[in-house]
Amino acid sequence: MLGLPDEAAACLFDLDGVLTRTAAVHAAAWKEMFDGYLRERAERSGEPFTEFDVVKDYGRYVDGKKREDGTRSFLESRGVELPEGAPDDPPERETIRGLGNRKNALVLKFIEEKGVETFDGSIDYVRAAREAGLKTAVVSSSANTVQVLRTVGITDLFDARVDGVIAAERRLPGKPAPDMFLEGARELGVPAERAVVFEDAIAGVQAGRAGGFAYVVGVNRVDGAHAAALAEHADIVVSDLSELLEVK
């Protein structure tokens, strides 16, 4: 019915790109923030400006990661080193945290202007999992998880939540480290070997594999190359979770 191993007792779902159509919102915010910063930097230094590639750079450096980790990872790829800064750095401050907060302000602006949509087939899958008696948790690097869940009205579909806010409070390393998913399993009272990870980001499926989970489901919303990259770490790759309902 659910296309999962018999020992599965819990499902750990990423949010952006798996359940909600917010991955595109995040990608657009990253691009606007990075392009703006790199353009400012090029004008100051005389260096050539090379824009943020919303497909290659997003998937390789920032997708699925905590905000500060994604900011740092991409800048390092361009040979840019900035001070870490503080979590409450203002968006105009030239630090890792400041730029991350600039990106987050853009995400909130885009969500307010355009709203949030869900992947209906994936929401149906979550409901089916709960009806089958499995516990469910949302595990997302986003610090805006609570707002998004409330906006789309699916808060009650999850028994636990581990997001960017909780990760910061508990000092959990972000994906591709498995700690956030392991924390989600602990919150549900289920061992990793009986929990299933659902992820659309490469860093996310890497985390699922590293954590020793029963099964890792990759969700490909991009293209064939992304599907192949997910398949390196996932047990199965689908375009939507509804496909699993058809697995006998």
Low-confidence stretches: none
* Multimeric status of the protein: single chain
The name CATH uses for the topology of the largest domain is Rossmann fold
Q: For this structure, what is the CATH class of the largest domain? A: Alpha Beta
Q: How many angstroms does the end-to-end distance come to? A: 6 Å
GO molecular function: beta-phosphoglucomutase activity; hydrolase activity; metal ion binding
Keywords: Carbohydrate metabolism, Hydrolase, Isomerase, Magnesium, Metal-binding, Phosphoprotein
Enzyme class: isomerase
Pfam family, one: Hydrolase
Summarize the helices and strands and which ones pair or pack.
Elements: E1 10-13, H1 23-45, H2 56-62, H3 67-77, H4 96-114, H5 120-131, E2 135-139, H6 145-152, E3 160-162, H7 164-170, H8 179-188, E4 195-199, H9 202-210, E5 215-219, H10 224-231, E6 236-238
Parallel strand pairs: 1-2, 1-4, 2-3, 4-5, 5-6
Features:
alpha/beta, six-stranded parallel β-sheet, hydrolase activity, 2 domains, EC 5.4.2.6, 248 residues, beta-phosphoglucomutase activity, metal ion binding, DNA polymerase, domain 1, Rossmann fold
Description:
Helix 1 crosses helix 4, helix 2 crosses helix 3 and helix 3 crosses helix 4. The protein has ten helices and six strands. The chain is α/β, with parallel strands linked by helices. Strand 5, helix 10 and strand 6 form a beta-alpha-beta unit. It has a six-stranded parallel beta sheet with strand order 3-2-1-4-5-6. The mean pLDDT is 93. It folds into two domains: 142 residues, Rossmann fold, CATH 3.40.50.1000; 91 residues, DNA polymerase, domain 1.
